[in-house]
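>> received
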Amino acid sequence: MKEYRKRKVSGTGRRRGLQGMRRYIWDRGTALFLCSVLLLSLSGCGALPAFSGKAEGKDGIRPRENSGDEIELVEPLTLPEGWESVEYRNFYDAEVYDAAVYPYTEEYSFSIDVTLDHFNYFPGESVKKGDALVYADLEGIDEAIETMEEQLLSMEEDYLEYKSEVEESLEEPEDEVERLEDILNAYQEAEPAMYEAAAPAEVPVSPGDAPGGEDTGNTGERTVTEAYKKWKDEYTDFEGQYRILAHQNNVARLELSNRTALYELDHAYQAKKLEELKAQRRNYILTSSMAGEVSAVTLKEAGSRIPKAEAVVAVSDNSRKLVKCDYISSSVIRNAEEIYVVVNGARYEAEYQPYTSAEYSALSSRGETAVSTFKLAEDADVSIGDYAVVVVLKKGKKGVLSVPNEAIHREGSEKYVYLRGNDGKEMVCVETGMSDGAYTEITSGLTEGDQVLVSNPTTAGTGRLTLEKTTYSSHYNGNGSFYYPEIYQIENPVAYGTAHFVDYEVELYQYVKKGDTIATIYVEGDQIALTRYQLQLTRLKERLAEWLEENGEADPKDLEDRQEPIRELEELISEINRDYAAVKITAPQSGIVTQLADHKEKDELRKEEVLGQIADANNCYVVVEGSDMLYYGNQVTVYYQDREGQEKEVEGKVVNLSGDGVGNALRTSYALIQIPPDVAGEMTASAMQGDFWNRQGLFRVVTEARKMENVILVPRKAVKTIQLVPYVQTAGPDGRIVARTFLAGGSDRDYYWIVDGLSEGEELCLE
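>> returned
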């Protein structure tokens, strides 16, 4: 007959049996009856359901006095029993988010509604600060700027012509005013005496007594001299001329001054409008605010309307590394005990980069997908494109005593376990802490190595696996097609005469340099028309020479007007001679010849007729559709067949950001893999073999995606899930078997890879 004995201990770790009595069981029928009675009439302890709730804090159980005889309780007989040791374990209440290492990225959008014209750079190309990335259609605003510049130039020319005419017309009058002023000054200096000296006064006589029989009227007063009269008349005449001419000159100068003031006002206003137009023109060009690499462009084609504020291009600075994952709410971030990032088995502290309220509002208004961003230290040993996980530890404890949840029972507010003693089973009250649903922390009442009673105890397999660090990845094997975003037309440049095709000097898919000969031609010229232009030019030059001889020093404006038609005719004759002498059509850009028109010898070529296309080899990609496993910066291997059908391989790099790396406007469902220019031609030839449908998916793309190095892998077959928590059994050096949980960064059908909880060198138990 077995007993449930009460074991007395002292201190805070005191183990206590249930208050009450101990009874003996005579037979199994009586035992079952007593169990039922106890369950219905008392808060008994023999058949209480096992505790399986969430983590509990300390419950502050107070010691209770022994009320008398101890009662031996009934041992449960309907369930298999076994013993498990009290062990130190870890507890995690955490969330693990898939993430990747992204570069710091800036997205660019137009500030006004525009029509897309062309991209200046494509993914994978490097740019400097201030480089123009994207051009909108500038035709309308360039015409407005040109018109304004012409108006300003006309205004300036009109004013300068008017000013020149006025100043020229004033040269002689102002010289004359100066001459008259000098004369007046000289007259003033030579002014003679005005009066003669007065005669002595005489006795008046009768008129008849005077000589000549007349009265002389000599009263003794002064008289004006004849010299003064003459001087005065001459001075007054010169002064009148001076005043009239000076007034005329002043009026002309005042009119020029008024006209200048109005001109300056009008010119300043028009110049301001021109600057505003030029400033507005800058809104039609997106420039990079930093050095970096173009990492995304919009899917829209030239001629598409682009609404303002919609991102069309992104530039990344690969020296600044960020980790991005699905959005984690700010409340979770605030309340978390710890947040860190794991890349290639190494743990990195990361600084959370929250949205500002304005940024979040803007995201919401545009319907953007919010993500969470974490900044890594500059010396973090990670690479752009590395797979990562973000661990948000809401609550966790390491190395705490714990027992299986099913070992814990309740009586009212008290919790207890059945402890294995030397002479039977003892009921021991315990205090608990955190729980993960499978195991519960014991804060008081038990010590390491104690044996507690559980139902359905786990059994350990005899197989052993030593944990080692290795590489975890998902093997990616997909198909891709070729893509050139920038195509140049090969056109017939001959505008004068009739061009005839002779032969092509290149083959399809050949790499050519700018200026290389694409095709040879010959041109039939209209010699009669050329002779007519040459005679016309000769006559114009003769007339100009005659005019110069007749007019001596020519007026600059008249001379310019007469020279302009001569220059135009000389340029026309030069173009005609150049076209008549043409024998080849050259490549407008370096790249791969992707198309050649079907021409036979002597075929007539129209002006600007397209003979073929050249794709820019610096921007050639293999496109993989529908892949969310390839990240910006990932290295991949691309397999293709050469012209002889032999399989070859080339290394490429994913150069477009997608997913969490950019906003919705720039997210794509494909990966762009940049290919080295030196193999682009051969790959293009491979891609163009066969009919159109057989070309699709011609390239095989292989890589190790979501790769994590230096991590511990645990086979799924070694993992047992208890209350949704993964557990494995580890064998210690002393042979003791311990069930332990772990934090997994990810898993596939065969393995979990471990973020925390298990260490290299430990042994797992396997079946």
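>> The chain is about 25% helix and 35% strand.
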